[in-house]
Amino acid sequence: MRVLAAMSGGVDSAVAAARAVDAGHDVTGVHLALARNPQTYRSGARGCCTLEDARDARRAADVIGIPFYVWDMADRFHEDVVDDFVAEYAAGRTPNPCLRCNEKIKFAAVLDRAVALGFDAVVTGHHARLGGDGLLRRSVDLPKDQSYVLAVLRRDQLDRSLFPLGDSTKAQVRAEAAERGLAVADKPDSHDICFIADGDTRRFLAERLGESPGDIVDARTGAVLGAHSGAYAYTVGQRRGLALREPAPDGRPRYVLSITPVTNTVTVGSVDMLDVSEVAADRPVWTGGPAPDGPFECDVQLRAHGEVVPATVELAGGRMLASLRRPARGVAAGQALVAYRPDPAGDIVLGSATIGSRD
């Protein structure tokens, strides 16, 4: 096949491209320039899309022996990922920008352009597997598994995707990169949100949304316990940084339970009030075979690297509804509900949807 390898400048995408060559594919490397004002140097493991990353990707392509190009997708990334991120926080939700980037950029804009140019598929360094049945599965390296952020992909997008690293651990990938002479073998992984290089999400949002003072209120009594300068700075399950005026009667910590943009309030309460048993999610994407007609049993994951919870799930009225077998905590609107079917060959992604309400 003629495939396009998305090369970020990191070790995973470099080894994925090399493995695609070894598999006999006709491979072309492409680096996505996503930052409007790329910095010259990374700050440790923070940030991406720097000039250094582009150079690392080019050097890796040279070692592998494949053609290499840079595609400027900064405006599309800013509109579909960065602006969406800010708008979601302004609406009281907690988005996952990696989900949106995969959905809108890597497997929509890039894949569409690749197909238009005559490529058959896109290869990436994501840690996930596509079985012979075409179903998306977890990586063998569970701590590095990225199937959660790939669960937004449609069936037609998965059919044109290759994930060569799903059967390897991260340690194996780094060792292979060193054996191949790739300089990125020891390059640190990028952490946090790629377009917030210093990791200060609150500052980033404040610069774009401005200060908007409001109250922090007690869920049980409605009493005002403190003030905030912007509800966007909080997320469900947060405990630190609340600066409340008075402690709880039992002396235990309080946690953020909800954010209400209409009244500009942040509601807090005890840890047990975070328990959620019912989750409703919108815009479902189903890739795990024919969609079931009624309720079915599966496991659900409600945030990246979060715990897996057994549940009864149903697709109804354009939504995915999950009744959890045991309560989950820290469930935030804007995150994804991903349904998995346990399988001896690796848990299979059935589908996903964006979390709206939870009770």
UniProtKB/TrEMBL annotation:
Q: What is the lineage of its organism?
A: Bacteria, Bacillati, Actinomycetota, Actinomycetes, Micromonosporales
What does the entry list under GO cellular component? Answer: cytoplasm
Tell me what reaction this enzyme catalyses.
S-sulfanyl-L-cysteinyl-[protein] + uridine(34) in tRNA + AH2 + ATP = 2-thiouridine(34) in tRNA + L-cysteinyl-[protein] + A + AMP + diphosphate + H(+)
Identify the residues that the record assigns to the tRNA-specific 2-thiouridylase MnmA-like C-terminal domain, covering every copy. Answer: 278-355
**Signal sequence: where?**
none
Query: Which UniProt keywords are given for this protein, alphabetically ordered?
Result: ATP-binding, Cytoplasm, Disulfide bond, Nucleotide-binding, RNA-binding, Transferase, tRNA processing, tRNA-binding
Name of the protein in its database record: tRNA-specific 2-thiouridylase MnmA
Ranges where the tRNA-specific 2-thiouridylase MnmA-like central domain occurs: 203-269
State the superkingdom: Bacteria
Give a short account of what the protein does: Catalyzes the 2-thiolation of uridine at the wobble position (U34) of tRNA, leading to the formation of s(2)U34.
Q: What residues bind ATP, as annotated?
A: 6-13, 32, 125
Q: Where is this region: Interaction with tRNA?
A: 144-146
* Enzyme nomenclature, EC number: 2.8.1.13
Stored NCBIfam families: PRK00143.1, trmU
User: Which family is it part of?
Assistant: Belongs to the MnmA/TRMU family.
